[in-house]
Amino acid sequence: MRLSQMLFVTLREDPKEAEIPSHKLLVRAGYIRRIGSGIYAYLPLMWRVLQKVSQIVREEMNATGAQECLLPQVQPAELWRESGRWDTYTKAEGIMFSLTDRRKRELALGPTHEEVITTIAKDMIRSHQQLPIHLYQIQTKFRDEIRPRFGLMRGREFIMKDGYSFHSDEESLKKTYRDMDQAYRNMLSRCGLQYRAVEADSGAIGGSGSQEFMVLAEAGEDEVLYTEDGKYAANTEKAVSLPVDAEISSFTEYKKLETPDTTTIATLANLLKCSPTQIVKNVLYQVAYDNGTTVLVLISIRGDQEVNEVKLQNELTKLAPEFGAKTILSLTVPDQEAQEKWATKPLPLGYISPGLPDYYISNPWDKGGIHDGKFVRIVDQTASELKNFVTGADDSGYHVVGANWGKEFTLPKRIVDIRKAQKGDRAVHDPNQILHSARGIEVGHIFQLGIKYSQAMGATFTNEQGEELPLVMGCYGVGVSRLAQSAVEQSYDKDGIIWPVAIAPYQVIIAIPNITDVQQVEIAEKLYTELKQAGIETLLDDRNERAGVKFKDADLIGIPYRIVTGRSIKSGKVELVERATRNSQEIAIEDVVSTLKHNIQAALEN
Ligand code: ATP
Ligand code: MG
Fold it and tell me: Is 226 exposed, middle or buried (CB count within 10 Å of its CB: 0-12, 13-18, 19+)?
């Protein structure tokens, strides 16, 4: 391709809306343009990158026996009602764009395709003889993200590879899941990325395994905890660990103490000269369930620990049937305004005890009131084991010390693990191993779904014994556009992008320093033709620009190899510069094609 014929516009300044390097660079280098919040145009250079990523994904998927298809993006609401996800997706999470057509039928723009594929399976799969089967597609997805940001990293319209497998039993599912694990590793290695596969949260579905693939980068939105022995790695949302031991409390006598200005654990520990591990901290959450029930949850957790809201959400979803509900619409820390709706008087915030009386809750049975007029009390494992602990006195400015479960406070019957694992904790598999933390960008997620969708939607098959059973399912996603940008996040320098050879939009750029020099042009044209004939993807910078501008642009757009037809052509040579290392060498004109062929091949095999 000739640069003179391309829509090629680079910017010298960083775009205002961009916060992270990869976003700034992709905009500056003319790969993408923002059209609206979380909505981007993929310009020709970007589209080539995306097609290369897609092709690698496609090859690795096909190698496992999965088959490509293309499902509709517009999806009827009935399918989502059948699976029970319409309300969660349109209201609770609100992540799905929905619309009503001219005949007043409700539709949605696909954020994911479990419903569509399960409908197809229900219609077409009858017998175990048709199983296992695995279909995938590469397609634009729509999600009305709360905080679209970082360019293609979190868009409202983005490209995903999503695959769905169907099995007659768990064992068959596990085999495909393992194949996918390997396929995903191959994809990421081939794309030239450094990544880590980690245990992931599977939501409230429970039981089944799930794994995320994280591209390691400081700008990543996810935190990964791992051990150096390589035996444990998990998303913080999911991670488990052994907390540090609690210090033995010196408060052997139960007392109420005046503790002014101690609404935080730090100030309280400081005043009482005790360790945060001896304190029981109490945090209030408000949960709205899908049947209109509101529940107030009082969590008691050790002072040095934090609540993991993903684990909490899973726990509360499990409890939903107790409140006659199916799912959670929202989980929040009630602010002043929310408290005013149900509190009989101001809460002793910062001084709450695990025994905060239920009489703080008004009008239990009123419409919109709080379930049962009682707090749902949950204690984290760490806090349940404390003796002679310090906690709030339900009286502003006061705490109690030397308290015990079973004496001053009733131990809640719900004792669960809802603490956030943190770096520095000891690992469960080997307490000598310490958890370390890294930041990552989630580019892929593989998931053993089980029978959640097939059961809800009645997608069954007949097994060898003639029994009718729900299909066992797996699903597997790769964020193609996010992956492409994460490659930039992992590989750039002050001058621009450094694409891995496998996904660079072009492999080589030929820069003609002076287009009024007939010989320079002639040699560049000849090399351009030869390289193209050799199957090497080549850009020819034939613009009427200064050499400096061309070199800057070539660095910015990150093409792996640059050929310069400069002064050395007099001695039959051109300059070859490698973008990643900046190594420069002069090579004979007749060796250009073979040298580049060799270098590119070597880079692709790495
Ligand atoms: P996240 O936690 O980042 O929102 P997710 O758990 O919602 O991701 P999945 O539903 O598993 O993601 O989607 C599969 C893949 O699609 C993700 O691993 C990610 O790479 C990509 N992806 C998800 N949401 C977006 C988005 N808004 N923009 C770009 N890529 C996305
Ligand atoms: Mg998401």
Answer: buried
